[in-house]
Amino acid sequence: MKKQLTLFLTALLLCINPLPVSAEEEMPAVRTILPRNLGDGNSDGVCNSSDAAVLLISAANWGATGISGLTPAQEKALDVNADGSMDAIDGAWILRYAAYSGGGGTMSIVEYVHGYELD
Ligand SMILES: [Ca+2]
Ligand SMILES: [Ca+2]
User: Fold this and answer.
1) pTM (2 decimals)?
2) Domain limits at 69?
């Protein structure tokens, strides 16, 4: 069931357009912009498939109304690859990380995606 949800969310995420993260959130060096709660879009302290669902719902809201319904901090947390927009790539990273950590992986999402730990 969890695998089916992951596959379903991945398929949906691949169909949505990117949501731009607020310009004020953009900075030049990736290492300086990564938030401590990277990937944790629902602010429950963990990054899992529920966060991908938050991203998907916000993308649907964005498409329908032009408003994501998320706070700037949530948008920044969900820009997992730190490219300045929330999109299917971020959702795919979250789902990949959820599968990794659910399988016993111990890296943080920052290390998993970016290859290093925050200071
Ligand atoms: Ca979360
Ligand atoms: Ca992104």
Assistant:
1) 0.76
2) 2-113
Q: Is residue 35 part of a domain?
A: yes
Measured between alpha carbons, how far is 18 from 117 in angstroms, rounded to an integer?
26
Give the tens place of pLDDT for each residue, 48-96.
999 999 999 999 999 999 999 999 999 999 999 999 999 999 999 999 9
Question: How many angstroms does the Cα of residue 79 sit away from the middle of ligand 1?
Answer: 13
Q: Please indicate, yes or no, if residue 90 is contained in any of the structural domains.
A: yes
Give 46 Cα–ligand 1 centroid separation in angstroms. 4
E strand residue ranges, the chain: 19-20, 85-86
Residue 34 belongs to a domain: yes
Counting ligands in written order, which one lies closest to the CA of residue 54? 1
CA of 50 to the centre of ligand 1 (A): 6
Proximal ligand: closest to the CA of 114: 2
The verdict on residue 118 lying in a domain is no
